[in-house]
Amino acid sequence: MRGRRAAGVRPSPFGRAPKGARIGSVCEETACPNREECYAASTAAFVLLGDVCTRACSFCFLREGRPAPPDPGEVERAASLVAKLRLRHVVLTSVDRDDLPDGGATHFAAAVRTVRAASPATTVEVLVPDFGGDRAALHRVLEEGPHVLSHALETVSRLFPAVRPRCDYARSLELLRRAGAFPGGAQVKSALSLGLGEKKEEVVAAIADLASVGCETLAIGAYTPPTERHPPAARAVPEAEYAEWRRMAEALGIRRVIAGPRVRTTYRARELFAPSAGG
Asked: Which one, of 116, 118, 142, lies nearest residue 128 by Cα?
């Protein structure tokens, strides 16, 4: 649909953002194929804490390097933008910030608190890094009452050293388990990207692991190299296979599953949350 916009599809809200908003958009910066659909559902995803990451995951579009200090005005700008655009659902995510003592948790917490104050009707989802396994950091975010706590597992255990060399499979699962056990906690969500070289039995094991730690929502999509410099996909996953993974995840007790080649962690984020919110 290049060059034309379907009737009724909402254009990018970032074209109407306040001058000087300076808030990164996952939707625009990754040229997400689903962004117009999300805009039509009054949903958007913002990147906090800059655009330079302290890790080097092979599938990711973000630059690795030494980030600048957190911008103290970013939280207020994000909240103002959410309110101005009248978003019904917002996803707040960030780069990995291993240079910060709490991995950026205090900034996340402030963002959730400020967005909820500025736009009480907006449901807030946080897509967080692993905070280096710091339980207190995770709790700091959850205490602010986000509606959804999302952390993407991304791939199977065997591939973590190659695909996510500075991350840890067990640590990610533990974060999700702790989020689910937090009193009055948020809906727990994760994501997997297929086509990175995983074997079928490894995907089964990963989905079972997610179910075992209380993951309630799962997004399963295809790895797509962000640029020509990134490793190519190991295989193209057939469309029918996604339906198989969805049925398996649901059979294992994951209540809300969305699967398909265009699916990303934030795809249909509000829709996936709505069943538990009465919306």
From this structure: 142
